[in-house]
Amino acid sequence: MPKLVVQNLAGRQVAVVQGQTLLKALQAEGIDWMHACGGKGRCTTCRIIVQQGLEHFSPLTAAELRYREKGRLKGNERLTCQCTLESGDATGRVPKQTQLPHMQYSELES
Q1: What is the mean pLDDT of the segment spanning 10-30?
Q2: Is the pLDDT reported for residue 98 higher than 80?
Q3: Is 51 exposed, middle or buried (0-12, 13-18, 19+ CB in 10 A)?
Q4: What is the mean pLDDT of residues 48-65?
Q5: How many CB atoms are closer than 10 A to CB 20?
Q6: Residue 107: what pLDDT?
Q7: Domain boundaries, the chain
Q8: CA-CA 20 to 30 A from 85: which of 13, 16, 52, 106?
Q9: How far is CA 47 from CA 58, 63, 86, 98, in A?
Q10: Entry pTM
């Protein structure tokens, strides 16, 4: 089963069931993750900065393509409510702009 490592959440590892969005996998592990639109792909608050394993993600969805065209989603960012891990492990970070105040994030950038 593929896993996601959230580097700035103390390297927390999250198993991602096939077909499950990253947001659902994070929530299943009890990790609070910003998603202002309720996980419908209508904003970019649930994005993750992918540091390794981008090739293991599902293809970009229509919502992600739309935000990428508008410059609101960088080439190494995905929306956790839209993407899945298809074939391998990945490492990512919570962007500083969408970090929740009650969560403890590491400040070290890598």
Answers
A1: 97
A2: yes
A3: middle
A4: 98
A5: 17
A6: 76
A7: 3-97
A8: 106
A9: 15, 12, 18, 8
A10: 0.94
Cα distance between the two ends of the chain: 26
pLDDT number for residue 110: 45
Model confidence at 109, pLDDT cuts 50, 70, 90, reads low
Is residue 54's pLDDT more than 50?
yes
The residue-averaged pLDDT of 81-106 equals 96
**Is the domain defined by 3-97 classed in CATH 1.10.520.10?**
no
Burial, 27: exposed, middle or buried (Cβ in 10 Å; 0-12, 13-18, 19+)? middle
Token pair 């403890």 is found at: 104
- Identify the CA nearest to 80 among candidates 101, 61, 106: 61
List the beta bridge partners of residue 78.
Answer: 48
Residues 6+ away with beta carbon under 8 Å from 89: 2, 3, 4, 5, 52, 53, 56
Q: Under a CB-based contact definition with an 8 Å cutoff, are residues 63 and 82 in contact?
A: yes
Task: Break the chain down into helix, strand, coil percent, rounded to 5.
Answer: 20, 20, 60
